Amino acid sequence: MLTSSSRRRVVITGYGMVTPLGKNTEDTFEKASQGKSGIDYLSRFDTSGLPCRIGGEVNDQWLEKEEDEKSLRLLAFSSRGLRLMAKATREAAGQAGLDHVVKRERIGCVLGFHGDNPSVEDLVLLHRYYDGKGWDSRGLLSLEGYSHLNFLRRKPDVGGAILSRLFRCAGPALSIASACAAGSQAIGESFRIIRDGRADVMIAGGCDSQLNFVGFVGFVLIKALAEKYSTPQKASRPFDRKRSGFVMSEGAGAVILEDLEHARSRGIPILGEVLGYGVSADAYRITDTHPKGLGAVLAMRGAIEDASLSSADIDYINAHGTSTAQNDPTETTAIKEVFGERAREIPVSSNKSMLGHTIGAAGAIEAILTLVGMNRSIILPTINYEFPDPKCDLDYVPNEARRKKHGRALSNSFGFGGQNACLCIGRYDDRDDGPSLCLDSHAP
Amino acid sequence: MMTETTDLLFAWTAMPHDRVVITGAGIVCSLGNSLPSVWDAIISGSSGIRPVDGFDARGFDCSVAAQVRDLQQSLGVDPRETRIMKTHSSMLMKATRDAFFASGLDGAQIPRESIAFFAGMGMVDYSVDDLLPAVMKSLDGRGTIDYAAFYAEGYREIHPLWPLSMLNNISFCQVAIDLDIQGENTVLSPHADSGAQAVSEAMKSVEDGKCIAALAAGVSETITPFSLARGHLSGILNRSAGSAEDCVKPFDANRKGTVLGEGCGVVVIEKASTAEKRGIIPLAVITGYGSACEAEAHLPGPTVKALGASMKKALSRAEIGPSDIDLIISHGEGTPKGDGNEIEAIHEVFSQSPERVHVFSSKAAVGHLLAAAPLVDLVLGISILGYGIIPMTLNTRNPDPAIRFSLVTGEPRRCDIRRILINCQSTEGQAASLVIESTSR
Fold first, then answer.
1. Partner-chain contact A2 B208, CB within 8 Å
2. Which ipTM score applies to this complex?
3. What's the pLDDT score for residue B10?
4. From CA A84, how far away is CA A138, in angstroms rounded?
């Protein structure tokens, strides 16, 4: 086994996002630190008759201005989710000066992405060629209206391939499709690829836009969405007793990960460090999380161990915190299992209270917000926390952001079906002997 | 249990050059639902390619495929669970169970969180049948949809668990639940090389001590109208009608394209020291992995350069040279360009004496299995090492005159095989290679 001193250190040299709350990282963080919500009634499709009619949509005006012709042409092969990703990646790549990296074969790309949903319009068209038993394939193939691009839009790997093309990456490329853990796993896998020396720089992140009828109805049918809310802004209430489900959002988050020496040699500012990655499976039930959060415990312990740290070194936890009946107490139980007596002293907050759940993008967006918070000594709040739940009894940073110096954090992402990922992220410390070891984490 | 783990951890650190071995294998494809039945069929020269079953595919230029048969019934899974299980889920369940039990993981003293699981998953399509009743119920008199009716009532016709059937990771999670596998995991999506990437992830996880044993799986997509349409659009299918069994001719001068298949391969990987400690006899040593990506200017497939680089990387990681390889299980999909590029790349890498190396392709027997192809070939490779018999490449009667390597055709060839190189490629331009070795030194 490699010891931490001989391992390559993996730092973050760029990040970008587009969320219901803001057009970029700065905008999103700023509004989140004011405790604002990005959730509203859905406007892009008709939701009348559905028990949940709210979500977090990204403002279209944020997208169109910056898109050039070449990217629009490529993006025609994919979906809205990827458009958001291209925008987030442009922000990250600009910050990291990715264009100036010469060896393109040493730049890789891992994307958490699920492809597009079929649309109701497609189904209407398709049903004319289907009699319940067989297909009129010739009729269908000669049909002008059903674009062959639909086949590509549905394929998860097309997203990563287009992103690689747009940003000229010729290194390792992976596509990850593990539901709500995808964005986090993409960063974790990229971290390992650099640590193992398989690439010097990686674009990593996730994107999702299921805010269309078929995607949305899917989640309505499995009864995962919040159906009881006074106003849309109040619907996502992680850890609160009156939570009733998650609020679905769209968005994208991208980070540029880089080998420390590589980043130093090109003199680019270093924004933070990925210290560890843990991943596990619940192996419990498809529709339920393990009641004791066993998978979550394994993922958090895995990330801490991978970072060669102990639980005492963790100053903050960016929770998965979906606002569902199941996740929030389970995650609380898991945190107590990992941190023991200290659990109550560690601030735990959920960005989903403001952003909603961006599914495959959530892990990436939340990892970035965690890092920005560390760099500015601000812990983002869990908003809509009004009625304490006896089963959720940690410090959830209720309703208002907190000013506090903190140096190392965990960011949790647990996927539907039971795939769990946890990233350990740290403020960058330029000492040569490994990850930062001493920061005044108990300062007020 | 804890002491056992500590002992095993000690074993890793004590042996830095401990080899990584395969201790269990499972396979499902059109030729059979277990390793013995598949091996018997492949040695006897059977092909699983037939006219498409399950829907009317006559409208497609290529209306044949190598589909699996009678699988779900044999699994004994609760019918409530099978509602969301399509063929790809059943294949993954069966092959993973076989590999898991074959390597004795069920009775092993290994904590469940130390068993990792990586899979390359083929495309998971939605089934129009699942959504159609909702659409039908919402049609007005003129055959167009009444959105008000659809939004208000129609959508309730959709089965509540329908969303699960099209989430890419659900079948993977079902298997993890079935076998209680709690360790590291990732679902890699549908490039045809993603199975090989799952193997490399599993190897790395074992080597780095992130787990004690790791499963690597590759599973193809379920054959549906969508998958056939995708195959046609990708330009790899044989569009000229012919007899089902005879339509894929790998490396033949008259090759015209490939045929899609359904299948799944799974292996269990662990350190030799772990296997020894558990009293499990390894089936093979896995020593090399390589990949490279460069697409042909006009897809499909990788360039000769990428194919060559992938083989060279795998050989160099295995610390051997081309002359150490006895057999290449080639990608050999039966397309003019794909096979042509692979022939050129093999000649380049094996330039010293290409005639020494045997080459075999399974595609004419089991079809192109996309994400599952490298894993199915890996499992066949394990059997080839064990039996010392190379199955024949079916249907190739007039080998491409450019070929200078020793293509196995006509009948199985019995010979001493020590090391096998396995190639795979995706239409998107990825090439990947694996190297396995016999356990006897």
1. yes
2. 0.76
3. 41
4. 36
Q: What H or E segment, with its residue span, contains residue B4?
A: helix B2-14
Q: How far apart are the first and last CA of chain B?
A: 33
- Residues facing residue A41 across a β-bridge: A54
Question: Nearest CA to B425 among B251, B292, B257, B256?
Answer: B292
Give residue-wise pLDDT tens across range A194-250: 998 889 999 999 999 989 888 888 888 888 899 999 999 999 999 999 999 999 999
Site from B9, B55, B173 to mutate, A interface, most A CB atoms within 10 angstroms: B173
Please report the beta strands in B298-416, taking only residues with DSSP state E, as ranges in sequence order.
327-329, 358-360, 389-390, 406-407, 413-414
Catalytic residues of A: 180, 320, 357
pLDDT at A95: 97
Type of residue at A342: R
Cα separation, A8 vs A30, in Å, equals 33
The pairing of beta strand B20-29 with beta strand B284-293:
antiparallel
- Does residue B58 surpass a pLDDT of 70? yes
Residue where the block lists tokens 């709690």: B182
Partners of A154 on chain B (C-beta within 8 Å) are 123, 125, 226
| A77-111 pLDDT, tens digit each | 678 899 899 999 999 999 999 999 999 989 999 99
Gap between the Cα atoms of A152 and A147, Å rounded? 10
What pLDDT score does A114 carry? 82
Q: How confident is the model at residue A137 (pLDDT cuts 50, 70, 90)?
A: low
If residue B80 lies in a helix (H) or strand (E), which one and from where to where? helix B79-82
Contact yes or no for A46 and B56 at CB 8 A? no
- Which amino acid belongs to residue A91? E
Q: How far apart are CA B93 and CA A28, in angstroms?
A: 43
Task: State the nearest Cα–Cα gap between B272 and chain A, in angstroms.
Answer: 16
Average pLDDT, chain B: 88
A420 bridge partner residues = A280, A414
Residues A146-168 have a mean pLDDT of 76
CB B399 within 8 A of CB B334: no
H/E/C letters for each residue in chain A?
CCCCCCCCCEEEEEEEEECCCCCCHHHHHHHHHCCCCCCEECCCCCCCCCCCCEEECCCCHHHHCCCCHHHHHHHCCCCHHHHHHHHHHHHHHHHHCHHHCCCHHHEEEEEECCCCCCCHHHHHHHHCCECCCCECHHHHHCCCCCCCHHHHHHCHHHHHHHHHHHCCCCCCEEEECCHHHHHHHHHHHHHHHHHCCCCCEEEEEEEECCCCHHHHHHHHHCCCECCCCCCHHHCCCCCECCCCCECEECEEEEEEEEEHHHHHHCCCCCCEEEEEEEEEECCCCCCCCCCCCHHHHHHHHHHHHHCCCCHHHCCEEECCCCCCCCHHHHHHHHHHHHHHHHHHHCEEECCHHHHCECHHHHHHHHHHHHHHHHHHCEECCECCCCCEECCECCECCECCCEECCCCEEEEEEEECCCEEEEEEEECCCCCCCCCCCCCCCCCC
Q: Which residue of A has its CA nearest to B149?
A: A49
pLDDT confidence band for A3 (50 / 70 / 90): very low
Q: In this structure, what token pair is assigned to residue B277?
A: 């400690």
DSSP annotation of B432 reads E
Contact of B172 with B121, CB cutoff 8 Å: yes
* CB spacing of A155 vs B293 below 8 angstroms: no
pLDDT of residue A218: 85
Burial (CB count within 10 angstroms: exposed 0-12, middle 13-18, buried 19+), residue A46: middle
Least CB–CB distance from A417: residue in B144, B170, B197: B170
Please name the helix (run of DSSP H) or strand (run of DSSP E) that holds residue B213, with its range, or none. Answer: strand B213-219
Backbone angles phi, psi at B111, to 5 degrees: -55, 140
Query: Would you state the structure tokens that stand for residue A209, as one six-digit string?
Result: 């836009």
- At what angle are helices B194-207 and B373-387 packed, to 10 degrees? 70
